[in-house]
């Protein structure tokens, strides 16, 4: 058996620490803890003297492990085997990266080389081919998302607030006024495939569509209903326009609600708006006063009209009765005239003279006793009376000679 100085160094019992103790214990195997000198009595790790049980050699343990590995890999355990094991481990990790999980309320969109392949809507564990062959995008399709128009949330010293964005909030109304409008749009994903692939930037597109729809509705509405009227009607009209536009884009977005949080008059038109409000209040006041006057005057007018109708009816009946009486009187006179023409003619003459001379100043002269008498006429009393006589009055002086 070669000695410790064997140039080929083929001593199978040589320990890995190269211990060459020179004890006289003969050619027994040396332990790795370095045997004592002389007498062949080496000291083990337990401090026991030679002659007891010797622990197994570490070199032998390594050899046994190599033998077991050679049995598992008959071709030997060289650098090639390490590469193969590394590739197998990497392939296993790569394949395991294709697993994904879908919770309730989520959809998983699977793309193959960037193009849509399928959509998983059922919750649970799913598998796709690893990247870069296939990719998965999991979207929550039940949660309500929100878009703010006209403002953004901001943090300040006093806590959470908002910062106004005039470029979005200022809108022109139908009556040429400016309103400062802040609104919130609540929405969710209705179709995950369309949401990801039909439009480039769904969130930005939704915001532009919402702003455009609200401007359209505000431009068709006067300022007063937006400020003090029913805002829900304005929001509902805008929501319908938004949804119709998004459906035309096949965006996969569903509008749940549009809320107008604040609507105020812009300071530049505040004075004019106050004038309009005052004019509206005056118009309402005038209308109320007019209604009160109408409610008062209409019954009076109806009563007056009824009274006039009754008076007219009475006048009609009296006129008819008087005309009938006159006609009957004329007929009776005519009948009397036919019976005695001279008497009737004389009576009619007397009645006519009575009617003519009734209001006139008269001087009666006896024809038989007037001879030799100078008539005396009181002209100074007759003239004023004649001047004050009415056109319908009889002549101021009438001379009757019987």
From TrEMBL:
Q: Name the protein family.
A: Belongs to the band 7/mec-2 family. HflK subfamily.
Pfam families found in the cross-reference section: Band_7
Under which name does UniProt file this protein?
Protein HflK
Primary location group: membrane
Q: Which domain of life is it from?
A: Bacteria
What is the gene called? hflK
Its function? HflC and HflK could encode or regulate a protease.
Specify the protein's topology with respect to the membrane.
Single-pass membrane protein
Q: Which residues does the UniProt record annotate as the domain Band? A: 97-277
Q: Which UniProt keywords apply?
A: Membrane, Transmembrane, Transmembrane helix
């Amino acid at each position: 058996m070669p000695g410790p100085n064997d140039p080929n160094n083929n001593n199978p019992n040589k320990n890995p620490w190269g211990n060459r103790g020179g004890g006289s214990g003969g050619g027994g195997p040396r332990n790795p803890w370095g045997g004592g000198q002389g007498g062949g009595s080496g000291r083990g790790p337990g401090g026991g003297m030679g002659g007891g049980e010797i622990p197994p050699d570490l070199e032998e343990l390594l050899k046994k492990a190599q033998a077991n590995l050679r049995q598992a890999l008959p071709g030997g355990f060289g650098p090639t085997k390490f590469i193969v094991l590394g590739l197998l481990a990497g392939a296993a990790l790569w394949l395991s990266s294709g697993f994904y999980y879908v919770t309730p309320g989520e959809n998983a969109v699977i793309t193959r080389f960037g193009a849509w392949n399928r959509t998983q809507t059922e919750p649970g564990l799913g598998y796709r081919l690893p990247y870069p062959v296939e990719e998965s995008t999991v979207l929550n399709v039940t949660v309500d998302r929100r878009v703010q128009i006209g403002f953004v949330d901001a943090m300040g010293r006093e806590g959470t607030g908002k910062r106004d964005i005039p470029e979005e909030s200022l809108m022109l109304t139908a009556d040429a006024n400016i309103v400062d409008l802040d609104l919130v749009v609540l929405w969710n994903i209705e179709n995950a495939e369309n949401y990801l692939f039909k439009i480039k930037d769904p969130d930005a597109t939704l915001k532009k569509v919402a702003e455009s729809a609200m401007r359209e509705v505000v431009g068709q509405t006067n300022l007063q209903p937006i400020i003090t009227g029913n805002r829900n009607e304005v929001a509902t009209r805008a929501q319908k326009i938004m949804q119709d536009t998004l459906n035309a884009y096949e965006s996969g977005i569903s509008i749940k609600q549009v809320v107008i949080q604040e609507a105020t008059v812009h300071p530049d038109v505040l004075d004019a708006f106050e004038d309009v409000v005052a004019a509206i209040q005056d118009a309402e006041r005038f209308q109320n006063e007019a209604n009160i006057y109408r409610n008062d005057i209409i019954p009076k007018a109806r009563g007056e009209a009824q009274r006039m109708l009754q008076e007219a009816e009475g006048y009609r009946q009296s006129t008819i009765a008087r005309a009938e009486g006159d006609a009957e009187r004329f007929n009776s006179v005519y009948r009397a005239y036919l019976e005695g023409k001279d008497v009737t003619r004389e009576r009619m003459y007397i009645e006519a003279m009575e009617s003519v001379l009734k209001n006139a100043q008269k001087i009666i002269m006896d024809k038989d006793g007037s001879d030799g008498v100078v008539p005396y006429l009181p002209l100074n009393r007759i003239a004023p009376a004649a001047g004050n006589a009415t056109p319908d009055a009889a002549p101021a002086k009438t001379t009757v000679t019987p």
